[in-house]
# Entry
Amino acid sequence: MTFLRLRTSLAAGILVALAATFFLVSSGHAQKKQTRPQTVYVIVHGAWGGSWAFKKVDSLITAQGNLVYRPSLTGQGERVHLATTDVGLSTHIDDVVNMILFEDLHDIILIGHSYGGMVITGVADRVPDRIRRLIYLDALLPVDGENVMAMQPPGGDEWLKSMTKDGFIIPPWAKADQKPPKDVPQSLKTFTEPIALKNGPAKIPGTYILTVDPGKKPEDDTFFSSSKRAKERGYNVMTMSADHNPQWSAPKELVALLLKDK
# Structure
């Protein structure tokens, strides 16, 4: 009986030891997983678009263990029902600032595509303490008092005016009978309202990604002047061979650049 009791006691002890070891190992893995640094990205879409445009980019960044927010600006994307002629650039800046504040986001990499560059510039002026880095993706980089119309290359403002009707800019590809997701008309005021910057150029590290169509020169790109301004400001300027919408035409290549530049 003594031998049997001893053998049973040893077996029980071994099981307890194994269980404890398993618990410690599991806890260690869980702790490592929980403490893994997670980068927060906020992506602001361009004119006429919506958050839907960066769905693929979001999934690729998220797959690497990061967190992505994609606000749709008032009157755009799934918020198209809120579109009015009173929506301006300041409305869109408020959209992103409030999302950052109410989601309590910090240490953000803030990305703006095209018109979204106007928005993230205003956001950086309002909540600079929340932002780690600014990334302009083939985007407008304004200074205080500029608006979208004034930043157009020669003839660009006339092109935009030709698409204006009843206080909205309606590009020919934004078809009313097209099923979502799709581009939609955008309030003219978002292009004519000057940006108001109270703090001057943001003292936040920045990156500018200039997308250049294959076979074309960077200086011929619509956003080349903004990339020059970024370089003068000390931003890291990169050139990517792609059209204006790499989130669709080259999402993997784009995400590789975004993840590289933290």
User: Anything to note?
Assistant: The longest strand covers residues 131-137. Confidence is low (pLDDT under 50) at residues 14-18, 21-25, 29-34.
